Amino acid sequence: MPQFLTQLTDALTRAEEWLASRPVFRRIAGGDESHAAVAIAQGIIASIMVTVGSWGVGWLASAQNSLFARTTFLNPLRVEPFGVIACACLLALGSLILVRAWLRLGQRSGKDHQHSVPVIRRAILWWSLPMFFSFPIFSRDVYSYFAQGRLMHSRLNPYENWVSQLPGWFAEGSDGLWAESASPYGPIFLLFAQFVFWISGGIPEIGVLLFRVFAVAGVALCVWVIPLLAERLKSNPGWALWVSVANPLFLLIMIPGVHNDSFMMGAILLAFWYGLRRRHAASVIWALIAIGIKPIVLIGLPFLGLLMAGQGASWGRRIKTWVLLALSVGVGLTIMGAVTRLWFGWIPGMASSGSAAFPFAPIGLVGQGLGWVASLFGLDHAVVAGVFYTLCRVLAVLFILYLALFRNDLHPMLGFALGLSAVVLLAPIIQPWYLLWIVPLFAVYRVYRGLIEELFFLLSAILVLVGVVDQLSVAQWIDLTLVRIITGILGLVYMAVLIFVDPKTRHLFPFNRSSWLQARLSATEERL
């Protein structure tokens, strides 16, 4: 095995040298930024691998009007076991090679990423282009978007009616886990979903493409505003853009995964950007757009108000700003509710959106454990777990109030980042993309180095692999467990190479730095 890993590392090095000699990739990287050409080229190849792999194991609708479900040209990839396994391996390997390309891009963008924003933007563009043509991966939430648009088109309220009430809903691709849940999305997004269902004629693949355009627009907003915010807040624009948007976890979840979170984050970041520039009307409008997509960002309003009031503002000025902001947002949300005829149904919808606990969420796991223990004493499992989740939500709200009212030493952007982190960590359900809500907020405020950054690299690689292995769409006559085992082993081997063997990347992960090793060796010698 060590010899195999050495040979693989040598092959990667030779591949880098070959890519570096290709003029086309130097031109893509921007001429004078040719040192980044290798990383960009690797990322392009990886994104092509991801796209081709998704054609075999990505999520597809099986409805009668699906463009692909009734065709046969994808059968070698989706029906034959060899094709399915090959596509799953392509997806896993491509996703992790994209992680390597991202890390190498960071290394090749100059010391501390100075003046690297243009080349990182080009990398994001070229890595995203192939993935635009992928089938949905990492989740099938896009089909839930489509089904909720169908609910709206049928003049049913998605806050009061479930996807499962639609005839043939399962064949349209929605995840059964959320089939009887109220929509967690805001009225603006539901109105857009209705438009998508109408303009697509109910054809799922056209709907996916239109939702992907929406997601890409959100990515573009983030690409534009994050360097501006970072520069304004005395952070490093190139590093902030690289660590947040160029991150493969962000790109894979937002573009092939087709998530509306990218537009939500782009909009709320724009609200803070305009708030910093004292353009309060524009700030309120973008905050309303963000809330209208996902109401979770309501928790940013107290901090946006602090930003508008100004650092060190008196209590009177802060309260006045909060009241005016609340009135403005309230009027805007009322207009949205009247236009969509959904009014404020998103409030109970948002409150109940985390009722299904995700076992990998610490709070969800603790709640389920408490419920199980309580059931041994004759108490209701669901009631006990529900009370615990409610207490955690209250704790998160109290923490946000503490940050907004009593921590005047914190910048409002940092306060929002900490408050949103508390909401995510104290929720009974955590999805990988929840992390992507938080990262840009910390990135634009301050550059974090050392162990925190290294742990983030490791977490990103792990979540990419977990997302691939967990979300595979495989025909029922093919053993899903076997496909996951093969994919997982391949991914773990490559991740081990990335973390422990590859001389270009291993020092970027925790506990592999020479200084750390030397310190531990010295401590061992002293003990001996």
Could you describe the 3D structure shown?
The protein is mostly helical and about 525 residues long. The chain has helices at about 1-20, 25-30, 35-55, 75-80, 80-105, 115-130, 140-155, 185-200, 205-230, 235-245, 250-255, 260-275, 280-295, 300-310, 315-340, 345-350, 360-375, 380-405, 410-425, 430-445, 450-470, 480-500, 515-525. Helix 8 runs antiparallel to helix 9. The radius of gyration is 24 Å and the shape is globular. The two termini are about 30 Å apart.
In short:
The chain has 528 residues and is mainly alpha-helical. The protein contains 23 helices and no strands. The longest helix has 29 residues, at 204-232.
Keywords:
528 residues, 23 helices, mainly alpha
What is the overall shape?
globular
The radius of gyration computed from the alpha-carbon positions, rounded to a whole number of angstroms, is: 24 Å
Indicate the percent of residues in helices.
55-70%
> What is the H-and-E element order?
HHHHHHHHHHHHHHHHHHHHHHH
- Low-confidence segments: 514-528
Terminal-residue CA separation? 32 Å
What's the helix and strand layout?
Blueprint: H1 2-20, H2 23-29, H3 37-57, H4 75-78, H5 81-107, H6 117-131, H7 141-153, H8 187-200, H9 204-232, H10 237-244, H11 248-254, H12 261-276, H13 280-293, H14 301-309, H15 315-340, H16 346-351, H17 362-376, H18 381-406, H19 412-425, H20 432-445, H21 451-470, H22 480-501, H23 514-527
Helix pairs in contact: 1-3, 2-3, 3-5, 3-6, 5-21, 5-22, 6-10, 7-8, 7-9, 8-9, 8-13, 9-10, 9-12, 9-20, 10-20, 12-13, 13-15, 14-15, 14-19, 17-18, 18-19, 19-20, 21-22
